[in-house]
Design a protein that fits this description.
The chain has 430 residues and is an alpha/beta fold. It is 47% helix and 12% strand.
Length: 430
Amino acid sequence: MPALCRLPNLIAALAGTLAFALPPCIAAGPASAPGTATPAASRLDEVLARGVLRVGSTGDYKPFSARVGDGRFVGLDIALATDLARSLGVQLQVVPTSWGAMMADLGNDRFDLAMGGISVSLERQKKAWFSIPYLRDGKTPIARCADAAKYQTLADVDRPAVRLIVNPGGTNERFARAQAPHATLAVFADNAAIFDRIVDGAADVMITDAIEARLQQRLHPTLCAIHPDAPFDFSEKAVLLPRDVALKAYVDQWLHQTMASGAFARLDEQWLAYPWGIESLRALVDARLLLAPEVAQFKWNHHLAIEDLPREAQVIASLGRQASELGVPQAWAERFFRAQIEASKIAQDELFRRWTDARRGPFADAPDLATVTRPKLDKLTEQLLRALAENWPVLNDPKRREDVLRAMRPMQADDVSARAVVAALAPLGR
């Protein structure tokens, strides 16, 4: 069974335009002059006039919507939202929301519609509309692989001894409360980190959508999605919409064309295969480069050389050995860390040249290199070693190099030195 069930049979089932029967006049009165009535503008008209489509998204539900370190939203539904805005000829604005606040935010006009792996539910349908569905899914457990046999059925989960964890405000919490009321329920607000709680032993199991369970077992090798091909229930993903006939008709038709043309299937495969784990590596490389100005200021104040080849060689050799113990080839790791050091030196050299041209004096508040900045660098380096080991299967796959390089952008360190960023990422493209 494929990872996601397509809905070819539902494509033809587009929601028709609503027709309202107007009652006959029951009281005599002056007739309105033809053409004098001004119909209320639809939400679609408002979007077109504004030139911006505001899309609410939680940014915590991979592969649909994830917010990465620089605040950018990425994912399948973000790519779809980008295409929807492009079809309208307007700009896309992603508005952060949460599962608990989403319905109120839609009602308060914080955004025009919401996307991000939103399940169709009758409770939500009471207050809003949905587009035609684009994915079929269902709730399934995910737990540590060593414990997977313990949580095969709802009866297995619905016991006081089971620590069931959920994110607040969405269908996961409602399902857990309704179907496993005797389990010890923990509501954890950070949906992006919730699976780490299971890995670390702070929780036993989570019940979530099968697509998320499949993806998270890729990202966390010690976790296993339990019977994702036979979920506990049935659900569909769709765009959450205000009660606006024109906007719903447009979104339905756009989705119909996107699915029928194969564009949706291509985006689906792209984002299921996206190297989500690379985000930790991206953030660490970025953070290390962002410390280059601190290092440069200290060296500038104390008239120290940017380069220290003997020390660099010792550090690189040591890191190569440590990486080898973690399963990353020593030669590759040495090349990677040499690139990080070279990138920092590029940034420092550019700053030195700028300060020389400006006849810059000493920096009054430059952090001490030995007691402040170097400990930061050492901590980041230790984390980089772990991130390399965790992502090595992806980094070592030649077919994934373009995906990896795309996931490593953008970098805040581009503001420090674009050349330095290119140097730091160079080993990932080889």
